[in-house]
Specification:
This protein has about 70 residues and is mainly alpha-helical. It is about 65% helix and about 10% strand. Helix 1 crosses helix 2, helix 1 crosses helix 3 and helix 2 crosses helix 3.
Length: about 70
């Protein structure tokens, strides 16, 4: 049970770092219709895999974060 709680907290913390890096890139993107977030840049900054970064950002987009953004790999 304790292992499950620890893994959940670790995953949420990890996702927070991915979202934080993605948000920084989102804000740095030139003002255009669709700001681009580079998955490679997020992965490099966080140490996460490209798939983990993509899934975290897509989930955040579905929840209304990063409006009108696009992802590049």
């Amino acid at each position: 049970m304790l292992g499950l709680v620890a893994k959940t907290l670790q995953t949420e913390s990890f996702n927070f770092h991915i979202l934080e890096a993605a948000f920084e890139l989102y804000l740095q993107a030139p003002e255009s219709q669709y700001p681009v977030i580079s998955l490679h840049e997020v992965a490099e900054r966080t140490g996460a895999s490209l798939l983990e970064c993509r899934n975290t950002i897509v989930t955040a987009c579905k929840r209304g974060r990063f409006p009108d953004c696009s992802l590049s790999s």
